[in-house]
Each structure stands twice: as structure tokens, then as C-alpha cells.
Amino acid sequence: MSRTTILHAVRQAQDVRAHRHPPHEVKTTPSFDLNTTPSLAEFIATLDLIGAQVIRGRSFSEAAAWLSENVPAQASTASRVVELPGTVDLSAIHDPHLLDGIHTAILPARFGVCENGAVWLDETELGPHRVLPFIAEHLFLVLKARELVSTMHQAYQRIGSIETGFGLFLAGPSKTADIEQCLVIGAHGARGATVFILD
Amino acid sequence: MNHPSAARDFLRDPERAAWHDQTLWMVRSKRDRMAARVPEWEQLREAASQIKEHTLAHLADYLEEFADKAEANGIQVHWAVDGDEHNRIVHSILKRHHVNKLVKSKSMLTEECHLNPYLQQHGIEVIDTDLGERIVQLQQKPPSHIVMPAIHLKRAEVGEVFHEHLGTPAGLDDAQQLTEAARQHLRSHFLTADAALTGVNFAVAETGGFVVCTNEGNADMGAHLAPVHIACMGIEKIIPKQAHLGVFLRLLARSATGQPSTVFSSHFLKPRLGQEMHLVLVDNGRSRQLARPDFRQSLACIRCAACFNTCPVYRRSGGYSYSYFIAGPIGSILAPNVDKAAHSSMPFASTLCGSCSNVCPVKIDIHTQLLKWRQEISQAGLQPAWKTLSMQVMAWIIQRPLLFRFSGWLASKGLPLANLLKLDPWTQHRDLPEPPRESFRQWHNNQSNKTPVNSENRVNPVPKGPTPTP
Fold first, then answer.
1. CATH code of the domain occupying A30-198
2. What is this structure's pTM?
3. Fewer beta carbons below 10 Å: N end or C end of chain B?
């Protein structure tokens, strides 16, 4: 059994005495900035830096108006936000491959992280199709303005234990700089990400 | 080939070498800007270092905890002692599912195990889906950098590769259009793949879940579409708790590419409905490295490649001048563990300036380990004969004061000639500095003659400098 072989070899090799810090001294969660207050201005500035578009509004009808202006009328949209229905019935789709060709995925974000512009979603938000935020050509993420944390430490505190089988920090549109370090937005995932901040 | 000769080939095109140097320096500068925006950056590095050190000291327990939790979550866990076993495991899973086509996101481990050629021999088509990796795969070359696999290529060269393999118009060298062509090409593969393989950035013992970070979204496109997902990881990727991800995800992208975060940080805990998820834990020499107190800290590496981008030798010699697939400073301390003789020149591909250790997000003492490998390699007699001989000659000379003084005199007189003839490789691109007019010994003797020894001098016997002559 390779499990036994490997674990035995590792146990032989690891030498607790040779390490600088006894286990109890390791800071499992660094405590340095867990009390900072999140700032919406910082979050918006970071989104701008990572190539995401920011829209602010007071109601879902403003979001709906933006979508009808910016998404072609004949384009297919898939939505997980009740107030902003899409054209595709996600519950009727059983094979994720059929999601290819979705123009815009409309997704609720649980909270945003100010320091890096990421938003958190797990299967509660994503629904049955994990591939949705990757396969759609564009993303429209709905986030309530008060749902912000300042750093990733607070983010994990807030997440607690992930209750579903998959969770995702999503920070802006997909991108690559693999060709001569030229930044290109839209690698395999979405070509654009719009974050609608609901005040 | 050893590093000096391969580097010489790279430097035959000085313009390209200068471009390579500048491109990587740009990435290093972006990293600096990002790090400077985090006031607690140094505390983060220290926390990361301590978490990794603690984990390595209790690795077996955390591995068991992780594997048990992962299995309880419905992930099928496999253990591989070496690269061969890893390849056999992956192949057996693929065979069971009659897989013809596998889409793969970046995994340095599968590169280490030579998985692609193994699967291709068994008739399975392997598509690397990271853009940079796909480019070098089409060229049938390995990555030259672990984060930016095609960093050594110019746009026009990528255009040629795509023209030949993807049918883009000849002469196309626009990064946007080339990326679009790759997107279309790879999407067709994502939609038709029978299985997906990904690497693992972090595996959390507490939850049995693992995290994969990409900017392109390629790992997720593969994993969430295919009916089978195989994730492969080295046993050192474990961290104890989910909260520790807060520390590592803050460090990883900032150190790697100068971004505040990767675009996608995906947390896989359970297979999706109807999907099979496998995880292969690979040792392949890691327990051997763990048993070497001088080198075990190298296992803390999170593969950000910050040490590559800052290294004056890597920037000026390129990834292909290193004999191991992980190049740069970290590769140079990992490779000798795999095969000391085959990679004996790698720890010498460094100025020991220590910049690698200073940018390392987990504070690996890379330059100290480089020096220690040099000592081990020398003691094992793996140095080129001329190096050993010149050291022996040197030792013989410095044991004979008269001869030593004579050699010093000879060197000071012979220096202009050395510059003129460019005998030493060091003088190919620069002159040695002018020799001082007097040797240290002469200067010291002059000082002793000038200044009488008294109690004041004994307290502070080091003279501030030569007394100016009136």
C-alpha cells in the first residue's frame, strides 16, 4: 500500500525538534487586521484596477435597465437572481455543455473583498451548474453595498465552513498575459465582468 | 547540458537576452508595487513561513486528516510513491472511463512525472489548456517558466506556432487576436473532453478540500464540464486550516504576477452530481527532501516564481538553460534532490545575492540552500575538474606566504593583460577593476610604521583608512 509507505517515510523524515516553532506557537490566524472596516471606495477602486466594470444602483429595476441596454435582445442569459430573470431555464438543463453560448450569466455574490476585488459565491449562489461563471461570455454580479469585508482573513471568517461542494472567489473578468506579457481580457472564462452594487 | 554552456547559447542573441531580462524585471516591479500596498506584508510572509514549517513538521498527521476528510466528502484518494505510480494511477482511471481526450490545466507535478508522454504512448490525447502551456506544447517544448510558460517567446513566434497549428493568418502578431484564436480552439476541446486534470495550489487538512488558482479559468472550464476530474498534488501542498488560505491567497498572486488576487480561486470540496473526482497524492522524492534538515524548507514553496523574476541569472539566461524543468533559484535547490549529478551545475547558476530569499513569500532561505548544495556537490566530486584543480592550486599557494605574495604581485601586474586578452569569462563583457597601487600588506606595514602602538589604538585597532599623504 503506497499510503502506508508514504506515511511511514514522511514520519521518519519529519523531525519536530529540528523546527524553530513548536506547534502551539504557530499563529493559525494572523490577528493583525481582523478589525479593519471595509471601505466601498477601496472595493470600487480595486475592481477598476482588475478590469471589472462597476455600476451602482438603488433598485433591481436599475439593474434590469442596464441589462436591457447592454445585452443584445436576442442573446441568451442565465440568471440566479430572482429579480432579474434570464432567458434560459437553468433547472431544465442537465448537461453543463449546453450552457456554451450563454451571453450573460447573472449571479448573486454573497460578499465582496475590498483588498482584491473578489466576490464569494458557492453553490448556494451558483445553483446546479458550477461551470456557469466560466462558460458565460459575460458576467453580471449583483452585490449589496453593505456586504463587504476588507481582507481575505475576514473573508474566511465570514465563510466559516463551506456548506456546499464548491466555492469560488471571483475577481474580475478572465485574463491572460501569456503572450509577451500583453494583458488580454477574456481568456477562457468571461470576457467582461460587471459588478452591480446595490445601495 | 550544464548551465554555463546553455546560457552561452541563450546569450548569443544579446537583444533577445536584454528583452527577456526587462520583461521579467517588469513582473518583479509589479510584485513590488503590490507588496508595498499591504502594510502587514512582512507579517504575512512570517505567518506563511511558520504555517508551512509547522505543517512539514507534522506532515504525516495532516496528510491522513486531509485524505480521510476528502474521502468522506466523496473524493477518491490515491497515493503514489513516485512518478511512475502516479502515471499508472492516472492512466488506469482514464482507461476505466474509456477516455480519448484529456484537458489539463497547469500542473508542474505532471510535468515532473512526465505524464503527457506516458498518456500519449497509451493513445490518449492530452491538451494543455493554459495559454502559455498550450503554446509550448504545440512547439513540443517544456515550459521555460513555471507561471508564465511561454515568457521566452515573442508575439511573432506565437503567431507562427498558431499559423501552423491553429490556421491563423500568417504574420498575425496581435496578442488580442492570437488569444482569441486560442480561446476558440481550446473551447472546442473543453466541450469535447472526456476527462479533466488539474493541479492543486493548496489542500486543506481541516476540510479535505483543495484550492486551484487560475487567471484564465481553464482549470474550471475543464473540471466542471468533464464527467471525470483528476487533481494531482505533491504531498507538500497541505495546509492545516481553511483560515490559512487567507494568508496564502494574499501572498500568492501578488508575488507571482503582481495582481491583488488571481481571477479565480476555486475551492473544490465534493464532486458535482454525477461526476467522479479523484485526487492523487504524490511523494516522488519529497519525503527524501524532508529528511534533509538543510533542504527541507524548500518544500514550503508555493510555486509563485517570484524568485525567478528577481534572479539576475535567470533573467539573463532563460528557463531553458537550467537542466531541470523547474528553473530559477527554487528549481536549483529542488533539482539536486532529484539527481545530484545530472543537475550539478544548477546551484552554481546564482550570484548568491539573496534577492530570491528576500522576495520569497514563504521565506525560504534559497540562497543559503544554494550554497549548501554547492558544498555537497563539491564534496561528492561532481565539480568540473578545472574547478577542483584551481581550488587545490589556490589552497597550495595560500599556505606558502612567499609564493602567495609573489602571486599577488603577479596578478596586479597581469590584470591589464587579462582585460586585454579576455581570458576569463568574467571579462567578456566587463573589465576587471584597476589593481590598487599597494597591497593590503604593504599598506598595513606603512600604517604600523606611522602610528605608534598605544592603549587608545588597542581599544580600536582598526584604522579608519589610509592617512592622506601631504
1. 3.40.50.10420
2. 0.92
3. C
